[in-house]
């Protein structure tokens, strides 16, 4: 019986190298982001998180098409040669995280209503994740510098495009989604008009609690 590794969640790194271990953790960022966003979407069930998720899925499909068309191999001698995805141009991880970073950055700056210090913290964290992911893919020999740069640039362009595209057509998208039977069944709603959705939900829960006491 032959055994193989599920490379989707496996990151190989240089042995006895603490920095490589850290870089391996950064390489898991797309998986962590996907699980976190899926959890957020399930809990909130709002159109914003759904649109964000659709954009990430389309971005993922796009990068696979790019790899098949370009067919540029990964760096020789690195663990990327044994990767589930054969080609290296562009970096899927970098394009994914770059899309995520740009879409979320625009949302924080232009959409989210919070203090300047909170915005600064989130923006700093996003940039750390993006930078760490890019460095990790080169350091662990999964990609060349050029493959990483192309991934970042394409992901950033797609992230910005998706943000403004969905912003311009958000009224029609929300009407289409919210008027569906599926939206009613799964309690999908639009929270974009609220200044603080968390505070709003908290106030409703507390009023309901006080009313039933």
UniProtKB/TrEMBL annotation:
Pfam families per record: PAP2
Domain of life the protein comes from: Eukaryota
PANTHER family per the UniProt record, alphabetical: DOLICHYLDIPHOSPHATASE, SPHINGOSINE-1-PHOSPHATE PHOSPHOHYDROLASE
Keyword RNA-binding: no
GO-annotated molecular function: sphingosine-1-phosphate phosphatase activity
Protein name, UniProt field: Dolichyldiphosphatase 1
Source species: Oopsacas minuta
Residues passing through the membrane, by range: 22-43, 50-70, 90-109, 121-142, 148-165
Coiled coil: none
Domain Phosphatidic acid phosphatase type 2/haloperoxidase: 49-163
Key words of the record: Membrane, Transmembrane, Transmembrane helix
């Amino acid at each position: 019986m032959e055994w193989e590794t599920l490379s989707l969640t496996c990151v190989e790194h240089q042995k006895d190298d603490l920095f490589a271990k850290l870089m391996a953790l950064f390489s898991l960022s797309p998986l962590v982001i996907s699980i976190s966003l899926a959890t957020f979407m399930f809990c909130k069930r709002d159109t914003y998180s759904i649109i964000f998720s659709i954009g990430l899925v389309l971005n993922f499909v796009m990068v696979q098409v790019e790899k098949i068309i370009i067919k540029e191999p990964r760096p020789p001698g690195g663990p990327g040669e044994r990767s589930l995805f054969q080609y290296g141009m562009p970096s899927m991880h970098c394009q994914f995280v770059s899309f995520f970073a740009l879409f979320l950055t625009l949302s924080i700056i232009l959409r989210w209503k919070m203090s300047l210090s909170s915005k600064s913290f989130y923006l700093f964290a996003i940039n750390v994740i993006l930078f760490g992911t890019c460095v990790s893919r080169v350091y662990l020999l999964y990609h060349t510098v050029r493959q990483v740069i192309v991934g970042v640039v394409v992901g950033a362009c797609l992230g910005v495009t998706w943000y403004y595209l969905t912003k311009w057509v958000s009224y029609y998208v929300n009407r289409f989604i919210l008027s569906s039977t599926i939206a009613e069944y799964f309690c999908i709603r639009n929270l974009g008009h609220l200044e603080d959705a968390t505070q709003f939900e908290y106030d409703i829960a507390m009023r309901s609690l006080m009313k039933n006491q």
